Amino acid sequence: MWKRIFAAALTGLVGTLGVSTAASAHAALLETSPEDGAALDAAPETVTFTFNEDLDPDNSQVGASGPDGDLDLAEPSVDGNTLTQPMTYTAPGEYTVSYRVLSEDGHNVSGTIAFEAESIPEALRADGGEDTEPTAEQSETAEGPDGEASPSEESASDSEGGNGMKNGLLALLGVVVVVAIVIAFVKIVGGRKNDGGGDSGSEDSP
Ligand SMILES: [Cu+2]
């Protein structure tokens, strides 16, 4: 009940925000390459962000991090509405790339995408990232974080929480039913015993 009311209120709020966002001239991210959440055989040479309006080259920033922490990257370049970040990598694994750009209306807009790279092309390896040992470690860590997967996992566990509550109530109901049956059974058996014993009066009517 409250959940529904809350959900409805939230939907309304998000709708309102969506409308006001569309009304102002915020820069909106149209697409990225690679796509957010992509699982790639080989790490891409560049990451690009395409927006719905031209970008200010002086106020467009990109940061990235991977299995070994933050990456030391070259400056991104801006071409019209596209922000391009040349990439280097340390090891196969999960990478996140964040952008921060200045909208034409003066507001900063930022966001993050994540992707997984199974291998790093030789030319894209950052200095010092060529050891094979860290690579093995990293492939383990890469399975652990599942960066962008966690929000959906969280929401999944949210609904599981709801189910858990339902299951709990059902279990409680089951226990109550079982207890009621046991009580009824004991009463019946007790009644019969008492009938047989001819001693019923003392227990049934105290
Ligand atoms: Cu704005």
Short description:
The protein has 206 residues and is an alpha+beta fold. Helix content is 43%, strand content 27%.
Strand order of the largest sheet: 2-9-8-4-5
Query: What class, by secondary structure content?
Result: alpha+beta
Count of discrete structural domains: 2
Number of H- or I-type helical stretches: 4
CATH architecture title of the largest domain: Sandwich
Fraction of residues in helix: 40-55%
State the CATH class of the largest domain: Mainly Beta
List ligands, each type once.
Answer: copper (II) ion
Name the poorly predicted regions: 8-23, 129-162, 194-206
Mean pLDDT: 73
**CATH structural fold name of the largest domain:** Immunoglobulin-like
Order of helices and strands: HEEEEEEEEEHHH
The major β-sheet equals: 5 strands, mixed
Number of strands: 9
The whole-angstrom Rg is 31 Å
Morphology: elongated
Summary keywords:
single chain; 206 residues; alpha+beta; Immunoglobulin-like; 5-stranded mixed sheet; 4-stranded antiparallel sheet; 4 helices; binds copper (II) ion
How is this structure best described in words?
The chain crosses the membrane at residues 168-186. This is Copper resistance protein CopC. By secondary structure, the protein is α+β, with helices and mostly antiparallel strands. It folds into 2 domains: 23-153, Immunoglobulin-like; 161-194. 43% of the residues lie in helices and 27% in strands. The chain has helices at residues 2-23, 132-143, 149-197, 200-204; strands at 29-33, 38-42, 46-51, 60-66, 69-70, 77-79, 82-86, 93-102, 108-119. The longest helix has 49 residues, at 149-197. It is elongated. Residues 8-23, 129-162 and 194-206 have low confidence and may be disordered.
